[in-house]
Design brief:
By secondary structure, the chain is an all-alpha fold. Helix content is about 90%, strand content about 0%.
Length: about 170
């Protein structure tokens, strides 16, 4: 049947077949581009900001650690000047947590966020006791707490935030 056709008709059929394949390939390409665009949008607008907020929390905890160490090392007004920096770091952490609460929607993410809150509560409690010891001049007790209980609660807190970050990375 194909042998009996004129050359012009065969060329037209071949051109039409090529054109149909080109349209199919273009359609598949556009669909994949739209999918990738959606993935990138989710990454930039949802996943990455969560990771940034978690990293801000870890950084604030690190600043707190330096403040607490400096409050132990310095005396008098210098120590108080360091302790006066704590509320700013607490504000940063609280704001980050509030934003994360609004952004995290998965059950696993909410569970990780709850662990962060529990770890933070223990850390804040230990930090408060440590600050009270520094203010009362109980430096030996403060040093003992800094190297034991406070260090442990801080490590647990940072680990819970890092676990939250890793959970968000898995979702990417």
């Amino acid at each position: 049947m194909f042998k009996n056709m004129k050359v012009g008709i065969r060329l037209a059929i071949g051109f039409c077949a090529t054109l149909i394949l080109l349209i199919i390939v273009a359609g598949i390409g556009m669909a994949r581009i739209n999918q990738i665009s959606g993935d990138i949008r989710a990454l930039v607008q949802d996943d990455f900001p969560k990771t940034v907020l978690a990293n801000e929390m870890v950084e604030a905890v690190g600043v707190n650690a330096r403040i607490l160490r400096n409050a132990y090392i310095f005396k008098g007004a210098e120590a108080q000047k360091e302790l006066d920096r704590l509320p700013e770091q607490s504000r940063i952490i609280s704001e980050s947590l509030a934003k994360l609460e609004q952004m995290i929607t998965t059950d696993a993410g909410k569970a990780s966020l709850q662990k962060v809150k529990v770890a933070r509560a223990a850390y804040v409690q230990d930090m408060g006791r440590y600050v009270d010891m520094i203010k009362a001049g109980q430096l030996e007790e403060a040093a003992s707490m800094l190297s034991a209980a406070l260090r442990t609660s801080q490590g647990n807190y940072i680990a819970s935030v890092q676990s939250l970050t890793e959970g968000q990375t898995v979702l990417i």
